[in-house]
Design brief:
There is one protein chain. It is built from 20 helices and eleven strands. By secondary structure, it is of the alpha/beta class. The protein has three domains: 213 residues, HUPs (Rossmann fold), CATH 3.40.50; 129 residues, no CATH class; 105 residues, Tyrosyl-Transfer RNA Synthetase (Orthogonal Bundle), CATH 1.10.240.10. A hairpin with a 3-residue loop joins strand 9 and strand 10. Helix 12 packs antiparallel against helix 13. The radius of gyration is 27 Å and the shape is globular. It catalyses: tRNA(Trp) + L-tryptophan + ATP = L-tryptophyl-tRNA(Trp) + AMP + diphosphate + H(+). Belongs to the class-I aminoacyl-tRNA synthetase family.
């Protein structure tokens, strides 16, 4: 969840270059924000050097949805959304709905203060600020415990970097009077919540998710649980849709936080067809049997034994061992239930509820229900209604009412030298603290997606999709002006725009941006002491 994803702190090799007739250096191979050679498309490592070789694989492998499918539901979407820089989401529809209905929602992201803030971090700054401007409760946190435990930075170093991150966030438009800024190390509520969440997590799970082993120090593991508390912190005073803007490498944090949000609930809500419990695969078989038999005999009560007979008749030769085992276990459960009616219901399961809370939930369901030792089956409430009722009862009796946090995912920025943007390679990125003239020079020296000669460029057009300089236009320099970003793209691929002039324009715009940004940083520097955040850590 902490934002190191626009760059990679490891040293990445860059392509060799020679001068060309196009007035610039010959381009190294770049990913254009879409593809990086040699990247690992399966393992997402929040602290490592992982990038994504094919963003499309994330949709299938990790259940991330495409942002295109919901963008029309977002009021006045940010230009990063419109241009496909924000490419994926988990359940962001809940946040979009809250925006449209003027309901409460929140946004939170964190920054690990291991170096200077740079243009990659600006993506996340912009996402936080835009959600705040749409009416969301905005949270910006400094992940200083993580920086100390996972990266080994001293507290003096952390203090200096933390100050710089906050100054840039404020200079870009974050409203501290309406928002929340904090450090992990000084937020007792976050630390208390982390302690409670830690009860629901164990070493084996963290090892499987993060590849921790016997050499991983305890503080590093503790920092993970602290991040889970950060993600859920906006809901401590009440449940609300909450979005976490991150790069795809941070998705393991989001998935674990969603799991822990469910585990600490007093109640879980599922759907069922009979009094016994089923797993997802068994549930699917029972559902199919109920639907088929109900359609065949609409005036008759479908009973468990009928469903067992139906499924027995569906045995397939050559079925996998797993499928055959699932079918056998489902048939067994149905036969044991005998003539019990097979009837759809919403089940509210007692996970961590007190006796008083469970009794209160029974009383709160004023429609048809059946009460068991560890769950309640209700036949008239929808899944959504049952979830909301269970949440209300839990909160009234001292429990958590967390909603599963949502997330949006943005593409990695390509380094100016090609390949990965790396904090350890100054020429590959532009710090928000760089002298504006240095920013100009870095853009002028950047590799591009241009052809070998001006003649070839005019004939074939440039490769804007593989160009770090075009990314600067799309991600930053065009601002909210889609027409300008499109014009640069079309002129490039149409052969009208040559790389020398294009880089000169981008370099001038970058210099102007840095000058303006640093002026605003100076304005906030004078007001920083008025903020409720301490930049001088007492830790050693």
């Amino acid at each position: 969840m902490t934002r190191e994803s626009p760059t990679d702190d490891s040293t990445a090799p860059t392509g060799s270059s020679t001068m060309t007739d196009n007035g610039e250096e010959s381009p190294a191979v770049t990913d254009g924000g879409t593809e990086t050679a040699g990247a690992d498309s399966v393992t997402l490592d929040p602290w490592g050097s992982s990038t994504v070789s094919d963003y499309k694989k994330l949709f299938d492998q990790f259940g991330i949805g495409t942002f295109d499918e919901i963008i029309e539901e977002v009021p006045t979407p940010h230009y990063l959304m419109r241009r496909g820089v924000i490419f994926g989401h988990r359940d962001y529809r809940d946040v979009a709905t809250a925006m449209r209905n003027d309901d409460p929602f929140a946004v939170l992201s964190g920054f690990m203060p291991t170096g200077d803030p740079h243009i990659g971090h600006k993506l996340v700054f912009d996402e936080i600020i835009w959600h705040q401007q749409q009416g969301g409760d905005a949270y910006g946190l400094i992940a200083d415990l993580e920086a100390h435990s996972a990266r080994g930075l001293s507290w003096d170093e952390i203090d200096e970097h933390a100050r710089n991150y906050i100054l840039s966030l404020l200079a870009l438009g974050f409203d501290p009077e309406e928002g929340n800024l904090y450090r992990q190390s000084t937020n007792r509520e976050v630390q208390d919540l982390a302690f409670e969440l830690g009860i629901e997590a164990n070493f084996s799970e963290l090892g499987a998710i993060y590849d921790f082993d016997g050499e991983t120090d305890v503080s590093h593991m503790q920092s993970v649980i602290t991040q889970m508390a950060d993600i859920l912190y906006p809901q401590v005073d009440g449940p609300k849709p909450t979005v976490i803007p991150v790069g795809p490498d941070q998705d393991p944090h989001v998935r674990l936080a969603r799991d822990l949000a469910a585990r600490v609930q007093y109640f879980g809500v599922t759907e069922a067809y009979a009094s016994f419990e089923t797993g997802p695969k068994e549930h699917a078989l029972v559902a199919e049997a109920h639907e088929t038999l109900s359609d065949r005999h609409p005036d008759e009560t479908v009973r468990c034994v009928d469903a067992a007979n139906h499924l027995e008749g569906k045995r397939e030769s050559g079925a996998t061992d797993d499928a055959a085992t699932t079918l056998d276990s489902t048939v067994t459960m149905l036969r044991e239930a005998g003539k019990e009616p097979l009837r759809p219901r919403v089940r509210i399961v007692d996970r961590n509820a007190t006796e008083e809370a469970f009794e209160a939930l029974i009383e709160a369901i004023d429609s048809e229900k059946r009460v068991y030792d560890a769950h309640i089956d209700t036949f008239d409430l929808t899944h959504e209604e049952a979830t909301e009722l269970a949440r209300e009862v839990a909160i009234d009796h001292g429990g958590y009412g967390f909603r599963a946090p949502t997330s949006i995912y943005h593409r990695f920025m390509t380094g100016l030298t090609g390949g990965k943007m790396s904090s350890s390679v100054p020429a590959s990125h532009i710090s928000l603290l760089d002298d504006p003239e240095d920013g100009y020079d870095k853009v002028k020296s950047a590799t591009t997606g241009g052809r070998s000669t001006a003649e070839e460029q005019r004939e074939k057009g440039g490769k804007a999709d593989e160009c770090p300089v075009y990314e600067l236009y799309a991600y930053l320099l065009s601002g909210d002006d889609d027409e300008f970003a499109t014009e640069v793209y079309e002129e490039c691929v149409g052969g009208e725009r040559l790389c020398g002039g294009c880089k000169e324009e981008a370099a001038e715009l970058m210099q102007e941006f840095l000058e303006e940004h640093q002026e605003k940083r100076e304005e906030w520097e004078a007001k920083l002491d008025d903020l409720d955040i301490d930049f001088d850590s007492a830790r050693r």
